[in-house]
Specification:
single chain, about 300 residues, 5-stranded antiparallel beta sheet, 7 helices
Amino acid sequence: MSMPFYVSPEQMMKDRADFARKGIARGRSVVALQYADGVLFVSENPSQALHKVSEIYDRIAFAAVGRYNEFENLRIAGVRLADMRGYAYDRRDVTGRGLANAYAQTLGTIFSSGGEKPYEVEIFVAEIGDAAEDDQLYRLTYDGQVADEHGYAVMGGAADVVAQHLAEHYVAGSSLDDAIRVAVAALGHSEGDDRVIPTGDLEVAVLDRTRAQPRKFLRLREPRLAGVLGGRGPEQAAPPAPEDALAGSAPRPSGQDDPADPTDQVSGATPPLEDPVTGEPPVAPPVQPAPPDGGTSPEQPGQP
């Protein structure tokens, strides 16, 4: 009869922690930074659909690194918990500390359980108050530990290098534009040469206490970031076309297809799905009711 394979509890927990840390380090970093009017989140994320930073409730935001399917399950669970608590009691009873405790219990249970692998995620839960001193920022690790951060925090990727750059350049109470510049420069900082991250590869969101709406979460789109950071796209690095190549090309009117370019299919003005600066959804114009006699409306007379 063969002897059963034995692993000490200390070795098993060490192996599970190493497994989770390696998975988290493969991702890109997320920076959370407190500024004068709220909390800023910045991450390098080329995807425009799979977000690392999201809204949980009126004044609460969620950011994560690691496996997308795992932290997306945690985000959905947090939204449901916040909605149920706000509906059953009061919206003021939904707090960032309560959500952080719930996440800590979930992550700690999964990590200590031997039946499944630990989650390869780290989480930020942030809540803003009426004043800067009331803001709260919690960092949760894969094993359920909770840390109350102040000023700034980094998780995922080369977190140590990014945090060192922030320690040298972060200024408490700075404006939003200055905070964005510092956070983006820290994400592009490395032990070798610093790199420039294009605005299209950045995911930036804020909890802004100055917003008039009860919901304080706002995404900053590429046009807004371009105004703060300047042109950082790859097209700025391309050399200009020679003048003789442009001399024979006549300007094409806006809204017309270019027959020489099979990928140019821009006929007509296409309305955007959302405002490029504020991220708010569009509002459809009112529809004119049809006349009761079935005729044409006065604004659009029929042809003779």
